[in-house]
Amino acid sequence: xxxxxxxxxxxxxxxxxxxxxxxxxxxxxxxxxxxEAVESxxxxxxxxxxxxxxxxxxxxxxxxxxxxxxxxxxxxxxEESGAxxxxxxxxxxxxxxxxxxxxxxxxGLELACWCDFRIAVHNASFGVLDRRWGVPLVDxxxxxxxxxxxxxxxxxxxETGVLIDAEHALRIGLVxxxxxxxxxxxxxxxxxxxxxxxxxxxxRDDRWCAYEGLSLSLLEGLRLEQRLHQDSxxxxxxxxxxxxxAAGQRPPPPRPPASSDGS
Length: 263
Known about the structure:
alpha/beta; 2-enoyl-CoA Hydratase, Chain A, domain 1; 2 domains; six-stranded mixed sheet; globular
């Protein structure tokens, strides 16, 4: 079995870290396969959403394979794409979702934070547990975590090495939905189908503006938004959907789970 498996579901692309016997930790070969999967997704115009997950229910990803850590840093291309395979890839133009079961730790947490948002089962757990061994965050954790959960929450996780549950992660904005055990991937794919059904140009431009705006002043961000959406506003797909709206074709919006405690 490959250490990373990929599967198409409609216009979604499932990327599964497939090392359940070692809690889906990542060695050099796994990192290289993750990179190849993301590049394949990038190039394929028939795909709209990437869903990143881990095999089994025990772990999304427990981080780097600390027993084989040299293979991560010596992997060809590691300097450019990141030790874990994809963390330094910042120019993906399409949506990405993490579907999290079980442990999401250290470099695995960094991989989850690489995604646009995160769906977790109620018994998932999160933490920078590599703090105990003196292993630093070199796959975006120091940059993405503060942007996602705020500086105080990020430093709390980074400095203490605390292990938090899914409800805590939901409260601080680390995950966006908590679902029953075994349902993270199904829910992520459900949302991926919703995303794929929308006109893609305006969605992708909105996504890009949100990311790029993090490093811009408000005025610069507004100018970027205005510039990018000149194309969005001229998109024939928007005209078509506005015609559907006028004709009364108004699909209901998706809603988060009724309960966030997994019940």
